[in-house]
Amino acid sequence: MKYIGVKIVEAEPMTVREAQDKHSTGTAAMDDAGYEITYPDGYKSWCPKAQFEEANRPIDEMTFGHAIEAARKGLKIARAGWNGKGMFVFMSYPETIQAEQIRSKHGDRLDVSDSDSTMVVLPCFAMKTASGEVLFGWLASQTDILADDWMVVE
């Protein structure tokens, strides 16, 4: 099962030998419950069960804050309670376009730059709608912001 976590920690740089000397009372017992954690770069570590579960949530039971972090990492997110099939939200990243590409719905070029050069389109949330269209500049409702049923869409 995959999890997502956002933590605030205190850290003190020290070598392994310094850590062993400082905490000479020992580490967790061999039969203590916990999780082996595999990081994206393949590094593995172990964390006691209580600390892991306090800091991490399954990716199908996320708060909006966790969902934002997932979207910022390039993942697609959605609410379990949404009725539309195939709907999800994703992060649209900055892109440089030719200023002349920006037009009104009537095809008229809009004067949006100081020159006829390029413009940067700023990042935003975008939504793939149930009808298959993409809505740039999607905004979460109050219900979406307070929900705990956000999930990562594979």
Brief descriptors of the model:
29% strand; single chain; elongated; two-stranded antiparallel sheet; 4 helices; three-stranded antiparallel sheet
Tell me what the structure shows.
The chain is an alpha+beta fold and 154 residues long. The protein has two domains: 3-57, no CATH class; 64-153, no CATH class. The chain is 18% helix and 29% strand. The strands form five sheets. It has a three-stranded antiparallel β-sheet with strand order 6-9-10, with no helix packed on it. The radius of gyration is 22 Å and the shape is elongated.
Structural class: alpha+beta
The number of domains is 2
Helix content: 10-25%
H/E topology pattern? EHEEHEHEEEEEEHE
What topology emerges from the helices and strands here?
Elements: E1 3-5, H1 16-22, E2 34-38, E3 44-48, H2 49-55, E4 56-58, H3 64-72, E5 76-79, E6 88-92, E7 95-98, E8 118-121, E9 124-128, E10 134-136, H4 142-146, E11 150-153
Antiparallel strand pairs: 1-4, 2-3, 5-11, 6-9, 7-8, 9-10
